[in-house]
């Protein structure tokens, strides 16, 4: 297909995840705004603004979905740069490409349907690799992190933006109420689908918290690993470099 589809092992959980995102692809952007009160836009802007990237760079945005991160990255790499948007789900890629065209972004983008665990790219082929709100859905996260390191050039940066562990004790019950009571209702209201949003809340709770993800990045072989909490730890941005 025009996405440059490569045949890669997908697996049962991955198929399920794929279906979850197929069912929400069209409503995905609206839901993000509703669930986070628009704050996800601020997180994403900060994430891209603070990434190590220059004009003319080649960047891989994994689990790129509908392309929020890719569009922001394009401004940073400029006309000479190139963004590869990789996602396991063809429907999300299709919506992403349409959105990108609507934003007037056509040149300098490539869309590749791929599993983060099996990247169809040569070693050292990117200056920066990002994954935003995607690692949580990957079955073998260690494997995906190793793949991110492999395709990165020496000196390049990898960045992970993901839901994490809320830090303040007083905020935890409020956050739980929002996640398990409000979210599924919003999902039903906007997307006619509460199950996908129940899955979302659960996947956030199961995702490794800040220190653990940092240790996983170190174990994968990344250098100078660090993280920063955003909005009290609702989200954290992890960074690592390839030596
Ligand atoms: N990065 C986008 C953003 O921040 O708006 C999209 C995030 S969306 C919550 C998660 C995306 O991860 C979905 O588009 C889904 O298809 C993709 N995904 C899930 N598992 C994946 C995997 N193993 N490899 C690549 N992409 C995956």
Description:
The protein is of the alpha/beta class. The protein has a single domain (12-164, 207-241), classed as 3-Layer(aba) Sandwich (Rossmann fold). Helix content is 45%, strand content 21%. The chain contains nine helices and seven strands; from the N terminus they run αααβαβαββαβαααββ. Strands 3-2-1-4-5-7-6 form a seven-stranded mixed sheet, with helices on both faces. Helix 2 (28-36) packs antiparallel against helix 7, helix 6 (141-151) crosses helix 9 and helix 7 (172-191) packs antiparallel against helix 8 (195-206). It is globular, with a radius of gyration of 17 Å. The N and C termini lie far apart (36 Å). Mean pLDDT is 90; it is low at 1-8. Residues 14, 17, 21, 62-66, 68-69, 87-89, 92, 115-117, 132-134, 137-138 line the site of S-adenosylmethionine (SAM).
Brief overview:
It contains nine helices and seven strands, in the order H-H-H-E-H-E-H-E-E-H-E-H-H-H-E-E. It has 243 residues and is of the alpha/beta class.
Can you lay out the helices and strands and say which pair or pack?
Elements: H1 12-24, H2 28-36, H3 39-49, E1 58-62, H4 68-77, E2 82-87, H5 90-102, E3 109-113, E4 126-132, H6 141-151, E5 152-163, H7 172-191, H8 195-206, H9 210-220, E6 223-230, E7 235-241
Parallel strand pairs: 1-2, 1-4, 2-3, 4-5
Antiparallel strand pairs: 5-7, 6-7
Helix pairs in contact: 2-7, 3-4, 6-9, 7-8
Protein name: Ubiquinone/menaquinone biosynthesis C-methyltransferase UbiE
Family: Belongs to the class I-like SAM-binding methyltransferase superfamily. MenG/UbiE family.
Pfam family, one: Ubie_methyltran
